[in-house]
């Protein structure tokens, strides 16, 4: 509350001289305050409360339009100076790294220009799991159901040089019946030194055979080398099947020895399960001119 000044009382207590001095000091103080207000012009008022979120800071100063600040500090090596008025997107790179524009060359599709075209290639860094074909190898995959259980023909510790049926007889019979009847579906046959008894010399072949419902089949083969560092893949055109009589003869006496002869013949060995130009005996050993295609 403002204290009310009792001038007669003060004059009586302090005298005329004291009152004159007080009036002079008050006038001088008011003059200085007015001068400071004119000199400072519009200023800022702030209220702060030690981080209290309920307090705000306001500015009464006159604001102007957008301004541009020009950087004069030297840039670090490898940085780029941006012209005023442009917009950039920030990209963070690890120290010492650079960016280069690279364009990967497209990988061409593998050309199937023989009845069974093989692609043998080296594996990089002696790592068989990292083998990459020199072309875009797709193989046949018609999405057909597996008609029979996969069968294996291989050597044994007691007979290292001879390949024999190593699956149940009924599974081998199923495969030959599917081929005879031209029943649409997939059968799988694997032969060679599957378990690697011959160590680094061991190799086997796995053949997926898509039966398309007529006289032809589509085959995709893959080799399994127990030693590095090569790989082989193969894809066929339309391979022609033996007539039904061939399969009937095989199924008339389905012993393991007879079934082995019908499925892979006598040519394959544990060291070379698929020599050049080899095709299984249940085929005619040739392809026809019909463009290969999966069944509709």
Structure description:
The chain is α+β, with helices and mostly antiparallel strands and 296 residues long. The chain has a domain at 116-287. Helix content is 22%, strand content 21%. The protein contains 4 helices and 9 strands. It has helices at residues 7-40, 169-181, 244-252, 256-263; strands at 116-122, 151-156, 159-165, 185-192, 203-211, 216-225, 230-236, 239-241, 283-287. Strands 1, 2, 3, 4, 5, 6, 7, 8 and 9 form a 9-stranded mixed beta sheet that branches. Helix 2 runs antiparallel to helix 3 (244-252). The longest helix is centred in the first third of the chain and has 34 residues, at 7-40. The protein is globular. The termini are far apart. Mean pLDDT is 75; it is low at 1-23 and 32-103.
Task: Using brief descriptors, characterize the structure shown.
disordered N terminus; 22% helix; alpha+beta; globular; 296 residues; 4 helices; 9-stranded mixed sheet
List segments where confidence is low: pLDDT < 50 over at least 5 consecutive residues: 1-23, 32-103
Q: Tell me roughly what share of residues is in helical segments.
A: 10-25%
Shape annotation: globular
Please tell me the overall pLDDT.
Answer: 75
> What is the chain-wise order of helices and strands?
HEEEHEEEEEHHE
DSSP summary: helix tally: 4
Using only C-alpha atoms, the radius of gyration works out to: 47 Å
| Structural class based on helices, strands and sheet pairing | alpha+beta
Distance between the termini: 102 Å
Can you summarize the main beta sheet? 9 strands, mixed
Our estimate of the beta-strand percent is: 15-25%
**What is the tally of beta strands?**
9
């Amino acid at each position: 509350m403002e204290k009310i000044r009792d001038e007669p009382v003060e004059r009586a207590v302090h005298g005329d001289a004291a009152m004159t001095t007080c009036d002079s000091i008050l006038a001088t103080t008011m003059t200085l305050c007015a001068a400071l207000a004119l000199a400072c012009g519009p200023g800022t008022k702030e209220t702060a409360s030690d981080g209290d979120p309920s307090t705000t800071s306001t500015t009464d100063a006159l604001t102007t339009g957008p301004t541009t600040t020009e950087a004069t500090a030297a840039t670090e090596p490898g940085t780029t100076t941006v012209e005023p008025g442009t917009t950039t997107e920030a990209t963070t790179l690890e120290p010492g790294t650079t960016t280069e524009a690279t364009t990967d060359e497209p990988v061409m599709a593998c050309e199937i220009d023989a009845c069974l075209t093989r692609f043998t290639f080296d594996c990089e860094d002696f790592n068989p799991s990292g083998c990459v074909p020199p072309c875009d190898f797709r193989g046949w995959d018609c999405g057909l159901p597996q008609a029979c259980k996969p069968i294996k023909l291989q050597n044994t510790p007691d007979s290292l040089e001879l390949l024999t049926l190593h699956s149940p007889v009924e599974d081998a019979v199923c495969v030959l019946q599917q081929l005879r009847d031209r029943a649409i579906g997939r059968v799988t046959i694997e032969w060679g030194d599957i378990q690697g008894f011959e160590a680094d010399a061991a190799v086997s072949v796995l053949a997926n055979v898509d039966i398309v419902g007529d006289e032809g089949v589509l085959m995709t083969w893959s080799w399994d080398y127990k030693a590095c560092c090569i790989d082989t893949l193969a894809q066929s055109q339309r391979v022609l099947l033996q007539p039904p009589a061939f399969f009937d003869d095989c199924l008339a006496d389905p012993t393991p020895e007879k079934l082995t002869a019908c499925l892979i013949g006598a040519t394959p060995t544990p060291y070379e399960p698929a020599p050049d130009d080899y095709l299984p005996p249940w085929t005619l050993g040739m392809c026809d001119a019909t463009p290969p295609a999966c069944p509709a």
